Amino acid sequence: MEALTGFDLTAVQAWVAFVLTLMVFSYIFGDNPLFRLAEHIFVGTAAGYVAVLVYHTVFRPRLLEPLAQDPAGHGYLLVPLLLGLLLLAKGKRSTSWMGNITMAWLFGVGAALAVGGALLGTLASQLRSSWISLNPTDYAGRPLGLINALLLALGTIGVLLYFYYTEPAGKGAGRLLAGIRRGWGRLGRWFMLVTFGALFASAIIARFTLLVDRLHFLLQTIGLLGG
Amino acid sequence: MIYCPNCGTANRDGSKFCNECGQRLTGAEGVRCPMCGALNRSGSVFCTQCGSRLIAVEAPAEAPAAPPAAPAPAGEEAVPEWLAKLREAAQREVSIGEEAPAPEQREEEAPAAGPAEELPKAPVFVIEEGEAEWVPPDWLSELRARSAGAAEEAPAAPSEPLTEAPAAPVFAAEEAVSEVPDWLQRLRAEVTAEEAPAPPPPGPIGTEAAGPAFPTEAAPVFPAGPEEIPDWLKELGPPPSEQEVIPPAAGPVPGLAVEEEELPAWLREAIGFGEAPAEAPAPAAEEELAGEIPEWIMALRPGAQEPTIEAPPEGYEGDSYTEGILAGVQGLLPIELPMAKPPAPEDTGSLLESVPAEDEAVQIFRQVMESRPPARRMPKPSRPRIGRVRLLSALVLIAIMCLPLLTQGQWFTGIARTVPDSVYAAYEAVEEELAPNDAVVVAFDFDPSTAGEMAPLAQVLTEHLMARGARVIAVSTLPAGPQVAQDILDRAAAARGGKSYGVHYVNLGYLPGREAGMRDFLLNPVGAARRDFVRGQPAADLPALQGLQGIQDLKMLVIIGASAQDVRWWMEQAAGLARVPMIAGVSAAAEPYILPYYQGEGRLLQGVVAGVLGAGDYGALSGSLVSTARVESLQWGLLVALIAMLIVAAVSVFTPART
């Protein structure tokens, strides 16, 4: 490393990244070995990096060093260590059942945290946000707010009605209500279509942003752009 | 091969259904050839494979009673049951020759007659047409001839019962004593009194009760009881002791494997043991008998026709078979004589004849199959047109997006847009909520794969936080996130100046466990982080973390995530612990999922900054330097993409769909 200290590794890294970026861009001609090579390099380096990082940030400071320094005081760490070792038993069919203990622990804790957080953080807050006023007097001077509230109400109820599949047989008022439900359900279907389109457009924007970043990098590497 | 009994198609061994007509092959109704095992169509006379005759000239209506099968010796399980019985009969015959049992003993050994359905499947003895179906012993022929002569005087004709007798030859001597005629019982008593060996039942070899029955056409039936004795036999009257026995004209019975002294006197006289064969009846007498004796009996007369005895088969030496499944069986199996002969070629030759048109078609087919197809150059598949369109579209798009970058926004002007309310709210929250030295946790939940979009956003947010004098505490729930966070922190610190690592900002690195790790960190930041990411110092020793015991000491939580799921997890865990101000910086793809947490009465987020466009807006508000060229490049790229999609949509609408 001493010999490399004076070497400009940044330039090498930039050119390696430049070549790898072009290899990935070669996918525009279809699947090819260059793209596959770059893909494999990315996956391999990412996996190696994660393995080293997890060892240095998790295993060593959180498990090995406490056990080495004060085994009696950190005896409780043997429990997660044992649970982690049980996961290795998953590699063999005859012993995979032992790993189920750890998996049960992980899924149990994860589900409990997810349910608790979803109830308080998402469900309750979204319900409160959906409880809006449709009284025009509450939107005095804010016509867009009233339109937004109406669209929100129409869309929410329409989407719910779209997934109402059963229809009771009836006459008169029953048939009228069924017709309203079907019509409102079709409107909810269009709300969903627009929503999916918006999600797709957002994903496109995100990918275009990444393309701009790569183009900027390529132009910068070949010296067409400053700093 | 299994041949379909319905259509005759050859199917592979083990086939259950015919591959031509679907006829069930296993258990299918048909006639299985006893010689080659081929399954033939029901009612077939000859086997379609070996030509053997399948049915007798006239099959008997009832199978003769047969004794139960003797236990097969070890290792001979594959021997058919009828063959095993045949062997047993042959061995018993040998034992009879050595030690003849007494009549009583023979009666005890006589097997009980069982029902016909339980009888083993007896081989079908077939005699070809034109040959004598069954050659009775000469003594019987003479006996019948004599009875026919006596019938001229008696009113009852003996021929009718014979021709209608459907049963295979059954010898009454093997039946119960009660069914033996009286005259025969008296005869036996006389023989026993003379201590003479018990006479074996007359008949050919293998026709004992223990052996299989060989049904032949109109085989003579020896009645089992007095009531069933035909009239012509009744005409013979009682045994020689009561009636004069007419000596037979024929010689000894051919094939009768008994010694002369074993036979009773009356029987020896009847069959003419030791006497010279009598001369054949005169032609006049023969013509006279022909009108009264059935034809089949006339055909059975001595010298009428003799079966052709061919060379013994393989494995037959002397009197018995020495090898093969027939090993141990004495005597030539009469079944082989007629059935081993292949059918005459003229019998099936007509089936293989073809007309000239068929021969010509066969020749053409053969030429076509043997001739190699002419070498034809296949047209080289052209590259799909969509490939060129895709390449052209990509090049145009890249060129248009590169122009703003190359010109640094001088030639192209960015599309004007207003600052979204969510971005402005985020800016306002940082400005109003934070004071110098307040602790702010910034979650960098993105990795290098999305850093192109998220890095500018994180840059402007971090710079603004540092500008407000807040202590920035960076963490990440992604393994590759801490390094990206460190780069951004360093740039933001350099941009603001006067910020030192560990004091004004710190990177606590990777938090494992996702939701559990988030919750653990929010409850105890120092204990959960343990060490910082850059120097590895204990978190408790870092000045930036002084006084930070839990989420209650946090002034703000800034969540910068490329995935909506990561941002939602942070919000949900933090909302369940304390009411802490939160703002989110998300990618454009995650914006639709996160914005609802900002809107409404129960919102959790104070503001949302989305994508590069949001970063540009936020940088414009906070005074951070964000490359406007990138924003313009993105805007122009999106515009080109929009135009391209509209063109494609228009083309697809006006272009008829290809089938």
What structural class should be given to the helix and strand makeup of chain B?
alpha/beta
Sheet bearing the most strands of chain B, described?
Answer: 6 strands, parallel
* Annotation field: number of helices of chain B: 22
* Shape estimate of chain B: elongated
Poorly predicted ranges of chain B:
59-77, 97-132, 154-178, 196-226, 240-258, 276-281
Keywords:
heterodimer, A: 227 residues, 0% strand, B: alpha/beta, Rossmann fold, 6-stranded parallel β-sheet, two-stranded antiparallel ribbon
What does this structure look like?
The complex is a heterodimer of chains A (227) and B (659). Chain A is an all-alpha fold and 227 residues long. Chain A has a domain at 141-227. Helices cover 76% and strands 0% of the residues of chain A. Chain A is built from 7 helices and no strands. The longest helix of chain A has 49 residues, at 173-221. Chain A is extended and about 80 Å long. The model of chain A has no long low-confidence stretch (mean pLDDT 88). Chain B has 659 residues and is of the alpha/beta class. Chain B has 3 domains: 81-339, no CATH class; 387-416 and 627-659, no CATH class; 421-625, 3-Layer(aba) Sandwich (Rossmann fold), CATH 3.40.50. Helix content of chain B is 37%, strand content 7%. Chain B has helices at residues 81-98, 103-109, 138-151, 159-164, 182-193, 231-234, 265-271, 283-290, 295-299, 336-339, 345-349, 356-370, 385-407, 421-433, 451-467, 481-496, 515-523, 525-529, 564-575, 591-594, 611-622, 628-654; strands at 2-3, 10-11, 31-32, 39-40, 316-317, 320-321, 439-445, 471-476, 505-510, 556-561, 582-586, 607-610. Chain B has a 6-stranded parallel sheet with strand order 9-8-7-10-11-12, with helices on both faces. Chain B has a two-stranded antiparallel sheet with strand order 1-2. A two-stranded antiparallel ribbon of chain B has the order 3-4. In chain B, a hairpin with a 6-residue loop joins strand 1 and strand 2 (10-11). Chain B starts with a strand and ends in a 5-residue tail after the last helix. Residues 59-77, 97-132, 154-178, 196-226, 240-258 and 276-281 of chain B have low confidence and may be disordered.
